[in-house]
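hey
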């Protein structure tokens, strides 16, 4: 790793890539897109007080002191859940608490959903940076919001150099990761792209022509060689106005470089947080050994409240990667973590840890 750029320097480069402007899309087709700004509610939700349950609409003060031993006769209006309260009513007695008289004392608002209880007019119904789920899209319909600003789905051009041996594992690997991270993959050199991933032939070998191929196309590398494991032969640069990430061709190294570098930029362009998944703090069952001067992506499997390391960062192949639930980042200034220490695990699954 002599002469390699630090991960911090690579992250600074990635974080300086400018974002494109948001785009406005119809709410009906916004599923899976990421909100680019707060989506303000155009009205109180709900827009009126309504019954939260079937029963009898009453004025709460009229029930004061009522019990099964001291029923209080009072006027009550039968009501069903979801119906607007009649004038003067501010509570709903359950059916078995009224028999011509109140058998229970209520406080104002009991059995009632108040106007604006879910969201007030002008307040954000959906914050920015949210990947819209079906319930979000339904809420937009309920609020009468026809369109909203979202982050553009990054268009990522994949240029796969091809395996030196065996099957092409990089295409399904990277296409799947890009879909997870809110991007669309393209393969034609003529396709417009917000980012180019050049995968394979990134190392110092005689047949590793990735940097030369990029240069021949009119591009440049600003950084080549990042002090990370796996994936240390990665590079960062430009081809025209599009940022380029040069990734290793060995599948495990490609996965490591994508996780630590490409995913950070792709998810930022898409409006999503990096890393995916919510961090989990657990106890390390066995030690993790690292080396000073390099940032390690240490794969682990989770077993209850323990994390089990799955070997050195550059060993185990895709079979080992498939057994991993997440990863621990070991900083370049650290020699690792002792068994029994607490570590932060970043799940590979964006829905994990929630």
């Amino acid at each position: 790793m002599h002469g390699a750029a630090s991960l911090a320097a690579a992250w600074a480069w990635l974080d300086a890539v400018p974002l494109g402007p948001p785009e406005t899309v119809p709410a009906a087709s916004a599923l899976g897109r990421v909100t680019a700004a707060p989506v303000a509610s155009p009205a109180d939700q709900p827009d009126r007080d309504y019954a939260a349950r079937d029963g009898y609409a009453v004025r709460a003060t009229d029930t004061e002191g009522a019990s099964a031993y001291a029923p209080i006769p009072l006027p009550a209006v039968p009501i069903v859940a979801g119906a607007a309260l009649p004038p003067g009513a501010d509570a709903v007695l359950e059916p078995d608490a009224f028999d011509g008289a109140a058998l229970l004392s209520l406080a104002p608002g009991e059995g009632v959903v108040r106007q604006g209880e879910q969201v007030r007019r002008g307040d954000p119904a959906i914050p920015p940076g949210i990947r819209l789920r079906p319930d979000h899209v339904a809420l937009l319909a309920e609020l009468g919001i026809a369109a909203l600003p979202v982050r553009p789905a990054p268009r990522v051009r994949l240029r796969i150099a091809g395996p030196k041996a065996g099957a092409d594992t990089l295409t399904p690997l990277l296409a799947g990761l890009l879909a997870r991270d809110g991007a669309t993959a393209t393969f034609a050199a003529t396709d417009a792209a917000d980012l180019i991933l050049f995968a394979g032939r990134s190392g110092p070998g005689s047949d590793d022509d990735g940097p030369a191929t990029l240069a021949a196309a009119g591009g440049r590398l600003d950084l080549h060689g990042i002090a990370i494991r796996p994936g240390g032969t990665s590079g960062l640069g430009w081809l025209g106005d599009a940022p380029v990430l040069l990734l290793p061709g060995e599948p495990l190294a490609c996965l490591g470089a994508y996780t630590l570098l490409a995913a950070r930029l792709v998810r930022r362009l898409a409006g999503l947080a990096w890393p995916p998944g919510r961090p989990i703090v657990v106890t390390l069952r066995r030690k993790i050994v690292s080396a000073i001067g390099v940032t390690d992506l240490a794969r682990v499997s989770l077993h209850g409240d323990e994390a089990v390391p799955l070997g050195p960062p550059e060993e185990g192949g895709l079979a080992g990667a498939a057994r991993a639930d997440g990863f621990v980042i070991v900083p370049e200034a650290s020699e690792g973590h002792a068994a029994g220490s607490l570590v932060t695990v970043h799940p590979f699954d964006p829905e994990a840890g929630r």
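The first helix runs from residue 7 to 15. The chain has four domains: 7-20+153-270, 23-45+117-150, 50-113, 280-347.
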